[in-house]
Fold each of these.
Amino acid sequence: MYTSPFSERYIQKMKALLGNSFAEYAASCSQPPCFGLRVNTLKSDPDTFYNNAAKAGWKLERIAWIPNGFYYGEEMRPGRHPWYSAGLYYLQEPSAMTPAAVLGVRPGERVLDLCAAPGGKSTELAAGLKGEGVLFANDISASRAKALLKNLELFGASNICVLSETPERISARFPGFFDKILVDAPCSGEGMFRRDPGMVKSYEERGPEYYIPLQRQILSEAVRMLAPGGRLLYSTCTFDEEENEGCIRFALDAFPEMRLAEIEKKDGFSPGIGMPECVRLFPHRIRGEGHFLALLEKAGSGTGEAAGGDGGSAPLSGGSCRAQEGFGAGRALRGALRTSRADGRSGGHEALTGVSDALRFVEGWGGRGRFEPGRVRLERERLYYLPEELCKGPAADRGGLRYLRTGLLLGELKRGRFEPSQALAMALPPGDGPGRLMLSSGDERVIRYLKGETVSLSEDACVCGIQEAARGGPPSGGWRLVCVDGFPLGWGRLHSNMLKNKYYPGWRWQ
């Protein structure tokens, strides 16, 4: 006889929802959950990663409906492998990978992840942009937004804007601005009962009735921020009809300009209740937990200043962020110093020298041709590289909203000298080259480095640094980029035959 930790009310609701397949669902709840990882396509392609993982003895199995997703066994610990610290993948429940994949962002688009923490879906959206356009990732909780920022920077995402705001405040600033919006709404979490039994108790305290008004409010603000012709993906990890199809019916009634778009059905996908365009994922029909997805489109062609034309970034007037060769242009220095003088914290010759050194540093580590000088800003001794969309229009005015990050933090000026950031290290491309300390994942120094310890180097590595400087290598001042299997982990600074650890303290292994 089936015994359940669920309340009788929940059991009866699921019987009414599933009919004859309820027994299959009930049986699936006693099965162990699935574990998945999603490859970061900013750093590797799925086939290459799969082959390298197989050589390392990993047993992975492809997730049928996620091109860069893999199952792994519970006995594995990929979160404690150096590849995780290099940002090669994100650990994510398989069905939760689906919303970002279905939204399908393209390079150059303006994208918003409105309820983004801890960042699983945001990291995939950022990878889809391929460094072009901008991703706004928001979470109303400041502590959760910090975790969101870490995961985006770990992935090497540079064209980001991380906020901790209410949807109402964001929509007041950005009406009709975004080409793509993901609303992975807070919900009663029925799809997580198998994975997290603690959710059952939470469900009894805060069931669907608590979340439905919140979901409708968030969805309404998201619609207001969507550009004409844009797409909005609404998702939850619950099975409740009113939290899912009910919220979509509300949106379609409240906003006549919105319509449902068809989501392609893969094996194991179920249609929505009375809405065949939607998708429901159940643990007895796929190897995953549970999700609901609905894709909405707003009428219009996407024309107008806020919508950005055809979905890409609109040209800038005056070319204030146009590409130039390298970082050596005087305009980059003048623009950065103009910001620093405005905040009254640095300026004059010291700031000019520090910014100049910083730009040469970034250029020497692979910045030439990858960064546009007009998008460099100095704010309170911190040097940022802004997405093009943050240089103009409503996004250029960042007053009044709580931002945790705007663009890529290149580093800081400390007493006039530049210190590169952890985020810059993660955004640099993989590969070998001057100034890189190349370690294999089996080298015990990798773990010591990730723990924040000093790392000893061979005499050859120290001599190599001297030779690199003599032949015009990176203007490093002793800086080294520590890499594992070719992928950057972070910075160190060379002193004799020792590498002083500069790995960001908040990321260190415990």
Note: Residues 303-334, 337-346, 462-473 have pLDDT under 50 and may be disordered.
Amino acid sequence: MKFLAIDTSGKALNVVAVNGEKEIVSRRDDCAMRHSVLLMETIDAALKEAGLTPAACDFFACVAGPGSFTGIRIGIATVKGLCLACGKPALSLTSFDTLAYTDRSGKKLCLVDAGHGNVYACAYDGVTVSRPPAFLARGEAEALIAEGFAPVAHAVLFGGVKAADAARGLLAAARSKAGEACAAHRLEAVYLRKSSAEEAR
């Protein structure tokens, strides 16, 4: 299996290049507002280290949301461009997948910071979605946690939340879901609420 996977949906920039058994995992923390500047050089470095070219990849994967509206669009545009240039399929992953696949066991509530004390949340039993993605206030998320879902996020959002290695989760999710790759034109953003600009209108 050969692929490139990227996550530009949050503050971090995660890039994974896989060439058979060789796995290159690149992490850049706190890249918010700089994904468009750093992404291509990070991709190039990861591919070179893996001994891989874009044309040799079986597919390209990206995190389509939820998360930063701008970051999501940067990731999708980049992967669509690579897919169209190389004639390869695209794999859409969610921010929740990158959390759920860091630990495939147990009931967990995957959380993504939505700002202003709110979260995007999706519950999993192992790596199977048990409650669909939703936009929740912190109190609503805490009510689900009280039901026995272990909270996991990209960073500690509030007490009791475990921070996960989302770059490793990106790798595991892309490997596991490779069979779901599809035509690049079907790659769409996953939004659970309107953008700040839309809400301000």
Note: The chain has two domains: 2-95+166-200, 104-163.
